[in-house]
Design goal:
Blueprint: E1 38-42, H1 46-57, E2 61-65, E3 77-80, E4 83-86, E5 91-92, H2 99-107, E6 111-112, E7 119-122, H3 131-147, H4 158-165, H5 173-186, E8 209-211, H6 216-223, E9 228-229, E10 234-238, E11 244-248, E12 251-255, E13 257-260, H7 264-268, E14 273-275, H8 280-288, E15 290-292, E16 294-300, E17 312-315, E18 322-328, H9 329-332, E19 338-344, H10 345-351, H11 356-371, E20 380-383, E21 396-398, H12 406-409, E22 419-421, H13 434-450
Parallel strand pairs: 1-2, 1-13, 2-9, 7-17, 10-14, 13-22
Antiparallel strand pairs: 3-4, 5-8, 6-8, 10-11, 11-12, 15-21, 16-19, 16-20, 17-18, 18-19
Length: about 450
């Protein structure tokens, strides 16, 4: 949840391939570089759209094949009761020098600052934690995150090493919450997380921005004027000949180049066949890198029963990641009486098999422990199921136990200078982020341009 901005090595480092001139369009002298050469982009998420815009503006003939009925991928906005419920990304993390902030400004996005510290922490009996206890725990957490990797090893998970260094801490509900809301939300489940590379990516600076008119504002802006064919489920990519042949349920299409801008989870579920087969390095990366699952739940009421001056309510349940964060949507959109809560780690997947009624009962159990049994049930609920979503199979990639983050770098390589890859899992330093996905799309487009 980025309660605090941690200091990492290499802060504000931008990849060498990335420069302001790559934002949204090429300079005028580049408009005919493509000279009509064709590119098929598989996937109309932010990475695919970034690549498509750059290549089109550079003179390529670009076709985007999207499996779903609309663009955006894991950026998906459902408007409910005057509030844009973003089922995937909600914030621009680190807006300073962030290409997504530049796109958002051009797209007419509006922003709100959510203060992660403007919150109360509640225990299971409804009592609040005092500020000193919270500050002490977070100070220790900061130090732990800076130093735990020194004790890590490839074959030990974050959870194993944490328990060795901090025995008994995982039985403390406040620590459960912090590890869940910070580490498991931002990175991934402790039991699957690398104890070495959990924090070897980079952050951009500045206070996170919440997009108040919906993240799809950016998608609508980027997709304008592009040739996007929807409901085109790609099943095969043959790059053995002079042209790359892409097979969909509607037939085949061919192009000089292909960019696969599809989520890692889709590869992990064997959605595509490649001819020739993917090299062993790619297959190993698919096998070793895992997907984190975060699910969101948007609940509305006729009238609020909570303190509207707060941005968040934090709860410390016995089960790690079980509806332990409540975002006050009314603070962002005053006409909306709603809270957004989250299911994290293993519990996120567990919720996907629960009925709506069962989910509401569990959420209300936490809220009643905070606010008392007299509070009313919500009048509506909207939810996500990213773990079983057939177009994602997860929220974002994570550095995984029994591997190193060099696995992410594999995706920077092209197949026979014809098939290129983009997406948040293909950029090691900015993985698991919207801006990383966008950068990777620009990178893939630039790699094709560099061939000409």
């Amino acid at each position: 949840m980025k309660r605090r901005k941690f200091i990492k090595s290499g802060l504000l480092t931008i990849p060498a391939f990335y420069a302001p001139s790559l934002l949204l369009s090429s300079c005028k002298d580049d408009t005919n570089i493509g000279n009509g050469k064709s590119v098929i982009i598989v996937g109309a998420g932010i990475a695919g759209l970034a690549a498509a815009v750059k290549l089109k503006n550079s003179g390529f003939t670009v076709t985007v094949l999207e499996a779903q009925a609309k663009s955006g991928g894991r950026i998906k906005t459902t408007r409910v009761s005057g509030f844009p419920f973003d089922e995937g990304a909600s914030w621009i993390h680190g807006p300073n020098g962030n290409p997504i902030k530049s796109v958002a400004d051009k797209a007419g996005a509006t922003f709100s600052y959510t203060d992660f510290d403007n919150a109360k922490y509640y225990d299971t009996n409804g009592t609040t934690y005092n500020n000193a206890a919270i500050d002490n725990a977070y100070n220790e957490y900061d130090n732990m995150m800076e130093t735990l990797s020194n004790e890590g090893s490839v074959n030990k998970s974050f959870e194993t090493v944490f328990n060795e260094q901090y025995p008994g801490y995982l039985s403390n509900r406040l620590w459960k919450h912090i590890l869940s809301a910070e580490t498991e939300f931002d990175i991934g489940p402790l039991k699957d997380l690398s104890s070495i590379d959990y924090w070897d990516d980079e952050e951009l600076g500045g206070a996170d921005k919440f997009i108040t008119n919906g993240y799809d504002t950016l998608i609508k802006y980027l997709e304008s004027g592009l040739d996007i064919q929807f409901n085109r489920v790609v099943s095969g990519v043959n790059y053995s000949g002079d042209k790359v042949v892409v097979t969909t349920g509607a037939g085949t299409a061919e192009a000089d180049f292909v960019i696969m801008a599809t989520p890692l989870g889709v590869y992990k579920n064997n959605a595509f066949s490649f001819s020739p087969a993917l090299p062993a390095t790619f297959q190993q990366a698919i096998s070793k890198i895992k997907m984190n699952v975060v699910n969101k739940f948007f609940l509305t009421w006729n009238t609020p029963f909570w303190d509207n001056s707060l941005d968040f309510f934090y709860y410390t349940p016995e089960v790690r990641g079980k509806f332990n964060i409540f975002l006050n949507a009314k603070k962002i959109a005053p006409t909306t009486n709603a809270l957004v809560t989250y299911a994290l780690s293993d519990f996120a997947l567990e919720t996907e098999s629960l009925t709506d009624d069962a989910v509401i009962t569990q959420i209300m159990g936490n809220l009643k422990n905070i606010f008392g049994n007299s509070i009313p049930n919500p009048v509506s609920m909207y939810r996500t199921k990213w773990g079983t979503n057939p177009y994602a199979y997860g929220a974002y990639s994570m550095p995984t136990n029994n591997s190193r983050t060099t696995e992410f770098e594999v995706w920077e390589n092209a197949l026979d200078s014809k098939v290129f890859f983009a997406g948040e899992h293909t950029i090691r330093d900015y993985r698991a982020s919207v801006h990383g996905a966008y950068m990777s799309g620009e990178r893939a487009a630039q790699d094709i341009i560099n061939l000409l």
